[in-house]
Amino acid sequence: MIDTPPSFEIHQTETSRLSQVDLNDLDFGRVFSDHMFVMEYEDGKWQRGKIEPYGPFTMSPATMVFHYGQAIFEGMKAYRSQSGEVTLFRPGKNIARFNQSATRMCMPTVPEDVFMEAIAALVELDKDWVPSGEDASLYIRPFMIATDSYVGVKASDKYAFSIFTCPVGAYYKGAVRVKVERTFTRAAAGGTGYAKAAGNYAGSLYPSMLARKEGYDQLIWTDAKEHEYIEESGTMNAMFVFNGKIVSPKKSETILDGVTRDSVLQLAKDLGIPVEVRRITVEELRNGLANGYVTEAFGVGTAATIKPIEEIGIDGINYPMLATEPSVSSRLLNELDGIRRGRIDDRHHWNIPV
Questions:
Q1: Quick one: fold of 176-340?
Q2: Which residue among 43, 75, 236, 252 is least packed, with the fewest CB closer than 10 Å?
């Protein structure tokens, strides 16, 4: 159990908006909870944080984040178990990744204890916003932006760290169609691909739009140098089932180190499902799909959870997935959701009660 920290200022809203929200009918990312956490960095140190009613920021047009892109974020979730308890899922992993992103983007790191206490205090205050539906959760969005008013190119001296939450339903409503992208690039060696930096996502929007016009839901990115190696999907890490074995691209500086990816690989081992983490070529994937020994593909991520891929497009040819039930992805989803909802023993101690 995490206690609400006495060091934070807490200013509660006078009127909750919860009565205006149907927690049984939620889109993803459109509804926001009553409060947010805000903490400023200036004079070389973090100032006292506060929780206040959710609302807009006021900024100068010269604020550096608007011009030079110093912005990072995270995504994590709180779940309501079948007993009604609210828990955070592996928040320490997200905090570590956030600070890794901060270092890469020349931004100050946030002390882990302050970060954890801020999340816990905010979720505790807005605990009634945590939905209980099977595909529902409270999405938690920490972010940091440069806030100096200056138009010279340099790292900012001032930053704002904030956290807000929103009750969400499923990110994708059903299985997805994806296209292997061999023209555009998400990240290159030496770049920011392993960081959850805002600009990484901005650069992906145009090729993603083109893919949607072709009828796909998402892209699977390939390496920047040769476009021959599978990397990750836009909102998910990618996994494939080769002859009953899960094969996942290995981590690199161009692939986001996914918390759900790490969890799923561990659960696969727990269930006795063979796992191999290595480089996967586009040609190997194409041959496997064409000859039937790649029987399943799925994406894993905080927002998407575990999402089956029903079709993969490679160089203009679409390959349908013919996975039979119980599929590997459905077994893993049942295990992961069971742990997060308290139906299955949390043997790895991933859940942190609020």
A1: D-amino Acid Aminotransferase; Chain A, domain 2 (3.20.10)
A2: 43
Q: pLDDT tens digit string along 137-177?
A: 999 999 999 999 999 999 999 999 999 999 999 888 888 99
Helix (DSSP H) and strand (DSSP E) numbers for the chain: 7, 19
Among candidate residues 262, 252, 258, the one with its CA nearest the CA of residue 231: 252
The residue assigned the tokens 């993969």 is 312
The token duo for 312 is 């993969």
* DSSP bridge pairs for 73: 143
**Rounded distance between C-alpha atoms, residue 37 and residue 60, angstroms:** 21
* pLDDT beneath 50: ranges in the chain: 1-5
Q: What is the pLDDT of residue 6?
A: 54
CA distance 163 to 324: 41
Diameter over CA atoms, the chain: 62
The total number of residues written for the chain in this structure: 354
Token pair in block for residue 310: 């029903």
Q: Where are the beta strands (DSSP E) in the chain?
A: 9-10, 35-42, 45-46, 50-53, 71-73, 76-80, 86-89, 137-146, 159-168, 176-181, 218-222, 230-233, 237-242, 245-248, 275-277, 294-301, 305-314, 317-320, 351-353
> Where do the structural domains in the chain lie, given as residue ranges?
9-168, 176-340
Tell me the pairing of strands 176-181 and 218-222. Answer: parallel
* pLDDT at 174 (0 to 100): 81
Place of tokens 């890469």: 104
pLDDT in the model for residue 123: 98
* Separation between Cα atoms, residue 49 and residue 8, nearest integer Å: 6
* Contact assessment for residue 144 and residue 96, using Cβ atoms and an 8 Å cutoff: no
Q: Which fold is adopted by the domain 9-168?
A: D-amino Acid Aminotransferase; Chain A, domain 1 (3.30.470)
Residue 5 has a pLDDT of 46
pLDDT for 99:
98
pLDDT of residue 44: 96
Of the chain, the percentage scoring pLDDT greater than 70 comes to 97
Question: Could you tell me if 109 and 129 are in contact, meaning their C-beta atoms sit under 8 angstroms apart?
Answer: no
